[in-house]
Amino acid sequence: DCNPKGACRLNSSNESAKNALFTPGFAQDPYPVYARMREEEPIAKLMFPDGQFGWMITRYEDAVDVLKDNRFIKDMTKIFGNGYQSIFTSNMLFSDPPDHRRLRGLVQQGFTPKLVESMREHIQQIADGLLDAVEGRSEMSLIDDFAFPLPIIVISEILGVPIEDQDKFRVWSNSIIGASNSEEGPQVYQHMQEFTAYLGQWFEKVRQEPGDDLISQLIMAEEAGEKLSEQEIYGVVALLIIAGHETTVNLIGNGMISLLQHPDQLRKLQEDPSLVKGAIEEMLRYNGPVEFSTSRWAGEDLEFRGHQMKRGDLVVVALDSADRDGEQFADPDLFDITRERSRHLAFGHGIHMCLGAPLARLEGEIAVNTLLRRFPNIRLREDAGELEWRPGMIVRGVKEIPLSL
Ligand code: HEM
């Protein structure tokens, strides 16, 4: 089996597909491995790169069932004790009802589709401003020049944190989100401390001078009563900053790669920009930004589809695999922006389904259509070599995407 550092190889076709998980080749193209896992062992018991034993779910139907089954829980302190609590887990993503409802409820009204839609014009201006800066150039770096800054500017404005600090946020959130397979544990720890100290100072400022941003609202809610603790303010804000940094950037990045690698689909969208909503859904399904961060713990000894799971077993749902399941999607490996209503799982399912989905969709739509409108000859730079997919357990994305304009 794989060793704890994830050094495992698929040497021959006789070897089980799960041995190829977490290898460098897997990061480059996970889909053939997932296809074999869905066939051979759709509910696979294995060891994850951090040495933790658990289960990986790769079929769509099983994924939906796990995500809506409340025997699978998020709050690991219920199993491992309070020592496992940190500010990075004091939020809705790592809570179960009733805490989950309370924490999600406090920020939900800031992300409704209606409210998010009212940001359209402003997000369009931000997108155009970023592309004004590359106008006249023959090349651009999609991630650095556009896909990364766009969602950061938007979430920074919603939260009311200074955009000048975006470079720091990038280092911290990259480090924290890569933590599960990083060799540099102490540095991750230092980054977590710096991030926490930064937020602490910022909250102090907000307490003295509240505005109409989301952080001010959370702090006022804390001061007004017992709705949330100080630790939870850190937890919710850190989650929103990290989610705003590490996901939408890869929707734009992975989505543009899919489009540019399928010139017929690119042409279709260029000819009819109103297809963009369906195109974004297909980008999310075909090459979704969230890899296997959608994890749960078995909250009790239980049976799931004939498998005996022990209380405390890790259960990881591979969303990108579920979204290529031929039982759910016709021609699953075909990238088709006109696909009929696709119930993909890129934003998860059930009570933890992504809170930021309306915002991410809107940012994606604006980003893709603005790039195509402003640069009709846009393509991947031919001399750039093979794209390098970031190895990681949490998000799936490319380090850099060099474009010719
Ligand atoms: C939860 C995906 C963008 C905030 C989730 C989950 C997924 C996901 C799969 C569920 C995790 C689970 O069930 O374990 C994505 C993708 C995005 C995106 C693919 C971009 C394309 C955003 C943005 C924000 C955000 C922009 C914030 C502004 C959240 C929050 C949760 C969440 C707060 C936790 C919800 C809960 O536990 O109730 N996201 N996300 N996401 N996402 Fe996103």
Automatic annotation (TrEMBL):
Keyword NAD found: no
**Record keywords:** Heme, Iron, Metal-binding, Monooxygenase, Oxidoreductase
User: Which Gene3D superfamilies does the record associate with it?
Assistant: Cytochrome P450 (1.10.630.10)
Q: Which residues cross the membrane?
A: none
Task: Determine if Metal-binding is one of this entry's keywords.
Answer: yes
| Family the entry assigns | Belongs to the cytochrome P450 family.
Identification of the protein by name: Cytochrome P450
Q: Identify the species of origin.
A: Saccharibacillus alkalitolerans
